[in-house]
Amino acid sequence: MTRLCVPITGETSRQMIADIETAANAGAEMIELRLDYLSEWNNDSMKELMNKARQFGGEVIATCRITDEGGNYKGDENERITLFELAGQSGADYIDVEYETWKRSSELREKIRALCSLYDSSRSACKLILSKHNLESTPTDLNALFSELTLEPCHVVKLACKARTITDSVRMLEALKQSAAIRPTIGLCMGETGILTRVLSKKFGALLTFASLESGRESAPGQISIEQMRSLYRWEAINAETLVYGVIGCPVAHSMSPAIHNAAFEAIDYNGVYLPMRVEHDYESFADFIDGCRSLEGMNLRGCSVTIPHKKHLLQYVEQHGGDIEPLALRIGAANTLCIEPTDGESVDRLGALNTDYRGALDALCEGIGCDRKRLGKLNVAVLGAGGVSRAIVAGLHDCGSKVSIYNRTASKAQALADEFDCTARPWQERDNLQANAVINCTSIGMWPKTENTPLHSRALSKRTAVFDTVYNPIETRLLHEARRQGCKTVDGVAMFVNQAVAQFERWTGRKAPVEIMRQVVTARLSS
Predict the structure, then answer these.
(1) For the whole model, what pTM was predicted?
(2) Which CATH architecture is the domain 3-240 placed in?
(3) H or E stretch covering 91
(4) Could you say which architecture CATH assigns to the domain 245-355+499-527?
(5) Catalytic residue among 127, 133, 202, 398
(6) 371-491 carries CATH number 3.40.50.720
(7) Are 511 and 261 in contact (CB under 8 A)?
(8) Annotation says 512 is catalytic
């Protein structure tokens, strides 16, 4: 079983002792004493520290990492060996030694071999983890590196590399799976795109994965806090059968989608996990990542939300691989939802691409003004903006039959969009004189932090006009605040954001989404 291991990185033994208790209370299943973080130590302080570590309740790793492999230790090598011996003799379950040091230091090899052969009446000898770190990249020959480590007389092999792309993380998971079938293995990628290896290591049989005690206390780049690992990514629920979903974009670090979908999975007891997936801007990176996930046995990638800059890449990929594309998504020229469905009796899965942006917007508008799509088709709608959001919404409104007028600061863009969807382009400066049943703001005007701005003056509104702002941060923009004071029906951007996620969720799972929970997650995150 893969365990959740928290590195203890206090600068004093007293701080480490306090951190061990915090880790235990947070649900850590193992701890790693990072002795290289200690500013000073002596035999008494080490014995006190190890005594506390033995009371932790889970297994304990003692590590004293040198700077060349990402640690803090710059001192004498003989003193480091003494630290290892003290830790091992005092109750550490594992000693982590760098493979390169192991190869070049016969003295260290002799001492560690002796240490890992010690037995007493109460416990077996501590075990040796041989670790190799690459702080610059993820080599192409991961299987060969794991095999080389496996040839040494150790109990656990560990490989940690910096992921330059998310595809490096897919390769690490594949190599981890093969190595773990032979010997207990730890395989991780560092950095933002290494999150797949940290969360999904449990699916592929790793001995452990690392989670920091809290944000800001990471012992390696890209570590997730134990609180996030357990609550956001539902660590306890992950197993080999867990289905994988995610948001593909660049950037994606601040996306709210993982919180929304993982909360929804938990609410309906669905065996899935949703992750941020940073994929670089070009089509080749997008295709390589999806190809890698689809070919990795046991990955179980079943769907992705796709955002900037990959919405067109999704259409291209699904078309090239003979998948199904929603006709309106093709007309819009962008898709935001990838579906990957296994097919009975066939080795190749079925791909699908659709656009839930326009669905989310139309559903939000209909709910907000109390109508259905048929009645929506009889309304005059003014759309502010002519960018990607506008394009999806205009396409959806046109499909319903609505009469649409487009106002945009760049007149040529408004005219091009209007010509394509048989709408009317209006000068931006005439927006305060618009005549419409509903107004939809698709610009970023009024978005945080410039919340004092509004795309439309209140004098342009009457209580007979419904106002929908696709901006969701803040939830109530100045436009919506003033529209509400005018007596207008209003629709906030959170409704659109949640509805498009609901459409994705229901398509992927085949089950009804817990809509209210999803909205609560969004509003709580925005409020904080």
Answers:
(1) 0.94
(2) Alpha-Beta Barrel (3.20)
(3) none
(4) 3-Layer(aba) Sandwich (3.40)
(5) 133
(6) yes
(7) no
(8) no
